[in-house]
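Input record (one chain):
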Amino acid sequence: MYQAEGIQIQNLPAQDLGCWYCETFDAHLFASHEFDTNVHLNCIQTALAKDPEDPEAQIFKREFSEIM
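The corresponding structure, as predicted from the sequence alone:
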């Protein structure tokens, strides 16, 4: 497993372990089993604020509903 404490890598696409939305790898990522990718909870909230009907954000929200 990767240890991301204190590490931040920007411009890292989702297929390379970066966030689905912001393409950043750091210690605040959560693994989505629905999309097999990583995502920040705050990026999900930002996506929903911009577009409440965003289908991916809705799925992430449902997947992480217990911790958001």
